[in-house]
Design brief:
- Helices cover about 40% and strands about 20% of the residues.
- It is of the alpha+beta class.
- Among the domains are: about 110 residues, Beta-Lactamase; about 40 residues, no CATH class; about 230 residues, PPM-type phosphatase domain (Phosphatase 2c, domain 1).
- Strands 2, 3, 4, 6, 7, 8 and 9 form a seven-stranded antiparallel beta sheet that branches.
- The radius of gyration is 62 Å and the shape is elongated.
- It starts with a helix and ends in a 5-residue tail after the last strand.
């Protein structure tokens, strides 16, 4: 990536990143604030609506109780007067308070509107209402004797008209049914069958008013509750009187529900046994949906089939069920028709019926959602504004980066061209850059680097040649001796090393073989030069003949002259193998003894002997050691100290014991495989990819002739 783009990224990071972080923090805070405020407002609205709905259903329960009491008092009055009428016969007369209740024009219009058919589906033909008479129906069987004074039904008309007039909203039909089969209905209807009326032929034996469940009035289509009370003559029940009360007038005053929502479900429910010892919550009446609440206020309908109330939250619904069983009112939040809702319910009345108002949460919290939406819109606008500002900043920063980068990169481009010249081999490259800044300092370093680089390359080339020369000084192939497997190899830790090994035949046509292995002190070029000198001295001296001790003595004299006052020295071990006798002779010059691995004895034999390092003193005499026998299957190892003195990260040496274990493991392998195994084992033990010392090993394995 070019500097101008790096500079652009730097400027963008410095200028835009803080702005993005600040704006992100602000927007995140606003979102959190919006969610928190919205949540609190929603919670407060739900709580407030719950309290208001609970108060509402409790108020309606109290009003309903008072209205029921009024209806029951009217029933008791009518029942008492009917009892007196039956007992007194033609002598009966109403109290003066009920007299003079004739219908006026305004009352007739009111009554006609009251009894107007509300449900268009309930068509039963034409009929006429007479508000100034009572319809009397005689018994259908002649076997039944009449108990009402014949032809005197108008005697109770003022009573019935007075009841309707005092409580017009609580009275729809007033009916009396007697054991004799006779019946009275107010107001009277003509032009239709009596069966059109929904009568409740219940003869109460207990002088306590009873109430029916909601049911449809077949004439007006309105849903009514029927209150009935027995008529007693001489303490004997002779019939019952009932008043049909419109349900919508009992549950009046719902205009203020629109303050909450137009989606409130209003229900009348009761506990209904299931037959298995439990009970469900049955809906006995429900307020019908209407396109306009003003034109169709509180039209209640009983379900055409049994309808059970339920919720998807079984635990909360069970609590609601227990409240009804305990006869308590309350308010709860639980799902209804897949929506979280507020349930407010009154305590069950004497019939076990409760008023339940169900208000969806969504309608209650609409203001909170609206406020949250407003805040989110403001956040979105702020986000767009931030993006616009960021675009302007990016454009300005890009322009600034472009202008500044040209000034900063001009000298760098000059340096880059100089580097390319050096890469192509032109070490005379020179750049003309002035200045006291870092680029100027880099230019001065570049100009001084080229000559040094040329010198280092020349040295490296010389080292490569020296490494190739030294590699050629070592044996390239292993000698062949019948009955023996021989392999040697050196691995240097640097380009040049001081380890040395060689194979020398003392006689051109002879079978004997001399093995030399040595280790020059130090590493690198000085060690390699001394190693090359010793190789030349040793090979040249061998051509003159003589025993091993004589040869090493003469070589030492020459080496001591070369290393005078340098402090360098070299350890060496020469071993001569006589194949005809399987005999070994050797000379040690400060080198580690050679090792013969005798697997029959589970031990190794050390080729000990005296002799100091080469180059220490000029007049040292070396003597030949004789003789050791190399038996079938035995392995002779000549190595440098880089093998057993190799250490791991804990400072532990590889040692002779691990060498024994390795050769014992690979004793049936070839000499080359054994040497490779030694190198690999040392590297695995040290755990380092680069050697710390030169490694050299020569393996002479006496083959087993019995195989």
């Amino acid at each position: 990536m070019k500097i101008r783009f790096k500079l652009l990224l730097l400027l963008l990071t410095v200028s835009i990143l803080p702005l993005i972080l600040v704006q992100a923090g602000v927007l995140d805070s606003l979102r959190s604030l919006s969610d928190e405020i919205g949540g609190e407002v929603r919670k407060e609205l739900v709580n407030k609506s719950s309290v208001e709905l609970k108060r509402l259903v409790e108020d309606h329960a109290r009003v309903l109780s008072k209205q029921r009491r009024i209806v029951e008092l009217n029933l008791q009055q009518v029942s008492a007067e009917l009892s007196a009428w039956i007992e007194d016969g033609n002598e009966f007369s109403l109290p003066e308070v009920f007299l003079g209740s004739n219908s006026e024009q305004g009352d007739i219009e009111r009554l006609e509107e009251k009894y107007e058919q509300r449900d268009q589906n309930m068509m039963h033909g034409s009929y006429v209402l007479d508000f100034d008479s009572v319809r009397y129906t005689a018994a259908h069987s002649s076997s039944r004797s009449s108990i009402l004074p014949y032809g005197t039904s108008d005697a109770v008309l003022p009573l019935l008209k007075a009841v309707e007039l005092k409580n017009p909203e609580l009275t729809l039909w007033i009916r009396a049914v007697f054991n004799s089969g006779e019946s009275l209905v107010y107001p009277a209807t003509t032009g239709m069958r009596m069966s059109m009326h929904k009568t409740v032929p219940i003869i109460n034996k207990n002088p306590v008013p009873s109430w029916s469940l909601p049911q449809k009035d077949l004439l007006t289509g309105r849903t009514v509750l029927t209150a009935s009370l027995g008529v007693f003559v001489k303490k004997e029940a002779v019939g019952s009187v009932s008043i049909d009360v419109p349900l919508d007038t009992l549950l009046h005053g719902y205009n203020h529900l629109d303050v909450f929502s137009h989606n409130i479900d209003s229900l009348l429910v009761r506990l209904e046994p299931n037959g298995n010892g439990t009970s469900g919550v049955e809906v006995v009446a429900k307020e019908v949906a209407a396109s306009s609440r003003k034109s169709m206020m509180h039209m209640w309908e009983p379900p055409s089939t049994q309808m059970l109330l339920s919720s998807t939250d079984a635990t909360l619904f069970s609590r609601f069920h227990k409240f009804l069983e305990a006869g308590k009112s309350g308010v709860m939040s639980m799902p209804y028709n897949g929506r979280d809702s507020i349930w407010a319910f009154s305590a069950p009345d004497a019939r076990g019926v409760s008023l339940v108002l169900i208000l969806p949460h969504d309608d209650v919290v609409a203001p909170a959602d609206k406020a949250k939406s407003y805040v989110q819109t403001a956040i979105k606008e702020q986000y767009l504004h931030t993006i616009f500002v960021l675009i302007i900043v990016v454009l300005l920063v890009s322009l600034l980066a472009f202008l500044l980068s040209r000034r900063f990169t001009e000298n760098i481009l000059i340096l880059a061209r100089g580097v390319k010249r050096i890469a192509s081999g032109d070490f005379s490259a020179h750049v003309e850059i002035t200045g006291d800044d870092e680029v100027g300092e880099l230019a001065r370093d570049f100009n001084s680097m080229a000559p040094s680089l040329r010198e280092h390359i020349e040295i490296k080339s010389a080292l490569d040649v020296a490494m190739e020369v030294q590699t050629n000084l070592l044996p390239q192939n292993s000698p062949y001796i019948k009955g023996y497997d021989i392999y040697g190899e050196s691995k240097y830790c640097d380009e040049l090393g001081g380890d040395y090994f060689d194979y020398i035949r003392p006689e051109r046509d002879g079978e004997n073989m001399r093995f030399a292995i040595g280790d020059v002190s130090g590493h690198g070029v000085p060690a390699a030069m001394l190693m090359g000198s010793v190789r030349g001295y040793l090979r040249a001296r061998t051509l003159s003949g003589g025993q091993l001790g004589e040869i090493v003595t003469d070589v030492n004299r020459l080496v001591a002259q070369d290393t005078y006052k340098t402090g360098q020295f070299m350890t060496m071990l020469m071993v001569e193998l006589d194949p005809a006798k399987s005999e070994l002779r050797w000379v040690r010059a400060g080198h580690e003894p050679a090792l013969i691995f005798d697997f029959a004895k589970n031990d190794f034999i050390r080729l000990e002997g005296e002799g100091i390092v080469l180059g220490a003193f000029e007049d040292v005499e070396y003597s030949e050691n004789c003789c050791a026998e190399l038996k079938d299957g035995q392995i002779l190892i000549l190595g440098t100290d880089g093998i057993w003195e190799a250490s791991n990260k804990d400072g532990e040496f590889f040692g002779k014991k691990r060498l024994w274990d390795l050769i014992n493991l690979k004793k049936n392998s070839s000499a080359e495989s054994i040497a490779s195994g030694i190198f690999a084992a040392v590297q695995d033990f040290t755990g380092r990819t680069k050697q710390e010392d030169d490694l050299t090993v020569v393996v002479i394995k006496k083959e087993n002739n019995t195989q």
